[in-house]
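Why do we care about 3D structure at all? Because function follows from shape, and shape follows, mostly, from sequence. That is the central idea of this module. The next example makes it concrete: a single protein chain, its amino acid sequence, and then its structure expressed as tokens.
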Amino acid sequence: MNLRQYEYALAVADEGSMTAAAERLQVTQPSLSQQIGALEKHLGVQLFTRTPSGVTVTVAGRAFLAEAKIATTASRRAIAAARAADGELTGELIIAVHMGLGARQLPQVLGQLRKRHPKLQVTLHEEPDPTDMERLVRQGTLDMILVHRFPAGCTFDTHTLGEEAYVAVLPKGHPLLSHRAALRVEDLASEGWIRFRRASLLDDYLARLLADAGLSPHTVARASQISTAVRLVAQGLGVTVVPASAIPEGFEELACPLQPSLTEPVLVGVRRNPGSAETAMLDHLHQQNWCGTDLLHRTTTD
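And the structure:
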């Protein structure tokens, strides 16, 4: 039994198919099946149930794969640490990001990191719901998280990057956009609202925002992506409130500041005893502007 077999089993679970996993791993399907069979024989349990359409993970398989993921992550970190000591950043950096955070900043940071360390790979878990984020943290496979609030049980070292401003987004030509003034949430009480998937942190935030204002406006649509929600607003479906930095390029003119201003802290968590890759990533993150208000090309008045 070896780490390569662990990686094979994890790939099969991810792909749900021996054939797809073999293609991803660049090995032959018979070779992969043989390695999985040898692993199951050594463990004395069946990890996968074979079906005509692919494979499914058994109960024993889920238990094994949770620990296998931790083991392969530890191996990856050990290799990266050894190479970093020799001045070369390699391996994989795994980051989880809450919805809307870093939509503009992260691509810039990763581009800068890529130029300096071309052999370093980055995997992003984008927009996990709170339950998924807690699971990822418990598994111990994350190197960093970018969040507004840390999930339960998180033991990462905390760094504050700034304050994220929220803005209202209105359809082009909406009368309130011509005022060039900050809006109250109450000003949007009669509008239809574009909301986000239930149980997401962003939709929870909007729910609290509306409840605090004593409003229960009509929800006309729900989106799982902020960029989709903004585009729906642009087409006249309704209004929404989103982080300023998450507004797609070309739609900034639809954004209006809010009064009183609404902000949430932007926090980055880094695993204890971080490696050189995490430190380099953190340095680049600190160099970004996280307030988001520079994206608004309008003045704010009381």
